[in-house]
Amino acid sequence: MSQDRVALYLQDAHSLEEGIKLVQYAEEKGFEAVWQAESRLVRDAIVPMAAFAATTSRIKVASGVINNWTRNIGLLASTFLTLDDLAQDRIICGIGAWWDPLAKKVGIDRKRPLTAMRETVEVLRQLLTLQRVTYQGDFHQVDDVMLDVVHGRTEPRNVPIYIGATGMQMMKLTGEIADGACLNYLVHPDYNAQAMDALEEGAKKSGRSLDDIDRPQLVICSVDHDRKRALDKARKMITQYLGQQPHLMKASGVSQDLLDEIHQVLTWPATDEEIENAMHLVPDDVVQMCTASGSPEEVKAKVREYIEHGATCPILYPLGDPYLMIDIFSQGYSA
Asked: What is the pTM of this model?
């Protein structure tokens, strides 16, 4: 079994039944964790997490990531207590600040996101360690409450809290208060250098070092023995992001000329037909700049780049055959 840490990332591309099989296969092949997304309004994270936890015995099960706005803090704590009842010491709470316009469209005003995240993590951690909590914050007001365990385990729960941070201010906060950072995907490995500096700056505020913060990173992985097929699957996703989130692409080093060329073809939101028509404009090197795409050797090399730039464990998002990807990475990725 490989000593390299590796995890699986699932969104909604697979049915829940297929997701369970994939997680069981990843566990069998030595993957350390599965991270279940909750991003668009399509699949919540908690139901799949419970399904994965109930049908495995060793693999860790993480939310990757839920948001800190839509669940009352008492419900959030009791949810993760319940998941820990299902899979003791295997649950990770990954939590992020969500994004607009989706949040705004469902009535959430994401004001002062740093303060909101700090309060959420502070109160959640106290509740999960079965403390009695009174807390009067700007976003959370709790009056003499605790997780009221009458039946079952009454000891503090071991549920690490990871923040899904992208901006550097949230990264600093993560270094200060969280157990780990869930680093984003579709970023150039050079982005990680800035992220590591911010995490370290935050860690020092709480008397810790960068080594005290776990740093798994989402990585889009499109691997196939047919290299062109692997690259084309990733090219489609990159083209969509070039059209819809150009700021992310620009931050990762994509030229303004290419962005301008893409925007002449794509509207927002882009149709499938527009994406297909624009894909040919995106060269292989741009596809491979921000994703692990291509042959087995190429995707392993790209993952090593993220690790060399500070990530501690790739969280692989399969675009192609997920079983092939799991097989390839079960053999490790170190050179």
From this structure: 0.94
